[in-house]
Specification:
Blueprint: E1 2-6, E2 9-13, H1 15-24, H2 54-67, H3 75-81, H4 90-105, E3 109-113, E4 121-128, E5 139-146, E6 149-157, H5 165-189, E7 198-202, H6 205-212, H7 224-235, E8 239-243, H8 260-269, E9 272-274
Parallel strand pairs: 4-7, 7-8
Antiparallel strand pairs: 1-2, 2-3, 3-9, 4-5, 5-6
Protein name: RVT_2 domain-containing protein
Length: about 280
């Protein structure tokens, strides 16, 4: 990771790592693409013919995982291709090649950290309901900001099948709350004390209402543990839930494959820049 400092802040990038990866795979002269994954493609286990050399596929996906440290814009496609390490197919390899072609278009993009004049901790929570075409499990995505700077982000398949979008969103809220509590504890140990509640942003009104509703009913008892956990943090004044418009949901980039315009907008919001531009 290359660290560049100036009077405007700090920038983290992995330019050399990207260039070396493209050179190693013979993609240095490839034609760039605007998106890291085709929005119309849904990969499954049965897709295409098996690869002759699955070990090469596994090594390449493993190397791409290291890039997600400073390149959250490829976190979703990397998480998708990581699900087929056991029996990779040709279509899965083509998806990896598209990620490399996307990186070729902007190999020096990285995360920038600035002083925005506050220490507010906030998390954006989202879930792609039944997003996995293999087992129809939802995919939890979240990103956490400290002082307006991205410090944490994750994309993970949920352990059970959600029966509604509100349920999948609420499970995502519980995971995001855990991450917020961990960040809060870490900041406290480092001496950064802020008594204001951390903001938890979600684009699902039903999930937000369940967080503040003390009455359980038939539609929420199967996620009662998550409800109790999030509600307890709200009652303690540690978390405050807020609604965010779907168009302003920053966790979208961790949730699904998006068009070029949407990707560029979210990268800008996440603080991703090209310091050589």
């Amino acid at each position: 990771i290359k660290v560049a400092t100036s009077n405007k802040g700090i920038s983290l990038s992995q330019r050399k790592y990207v260039i070396d990866l493209l050179e190693e795979t013979g993609m240095l002269g490839s034609k760039p693409v605007d998106t890291s994954m085709d929005p119309n493609v849904k990969l499954t286990v049965e897709d295409g013919e098996p690869l002759n050399d699955p070990e090469k596929y596994r090594r390449l996906v493993g190397k791409l995982n290291y890039l997600t440290v400073t390149r959250p814009d490829i976190a979703f496609p990397v998480s998708v291709v990581s699900q087929f390490l056991a029996t990779p197919k040709i279509t899965h390899r083509n998806a990896v090649i598209r990620i490399l072609r996307y990186l070729k278009g902007n190999p020096v993009r990285g995360l920038a950290y600035r002083d925005y004049g506050h220490r507010r901790v906030e998390g954006f929570s989202d879930a792609d309901w039944a997003g996995s075409p293999v087992d129809r499990r939802s995919i939890t995505r979240y990103c956490v900001f400290v002082g307006g700077n991205l410090v944490s982000g994750k994309s993970k398949k949920q352990s059970v099948v959600a029966r509604s979008s509100a349920e999948s969103k609420y499970r995502a809220m519980a995971h995001t709350t855990c991450e917020l509590m961990w960040v809060k504890q870490l900041l406290t140990e480092m001496g950064f004390v802020d008594s204001s509640p951390m903001q938890l942003w979600c684009d699902n009104q039903a999930a937000i209402h369940n967080a503040s509703n003390p009455v359980f009913h038939e539609r929420t008892k199967h996620i009662e543990v998550d409800c109790h956990f999030v509600r307890e943090k709200i009652q303690q004044g540690l978390i405050s839930t807020c609604h965010v418009k779907t168009g302003e949901q920053l966790a979208d980039i961790f949730t699904k494959s998006l068009g070029n315009g949407r990707v560029q907008y979210l990268c800008n919001k996440l603080g991703m820049i090209d310091i050589y531009a």
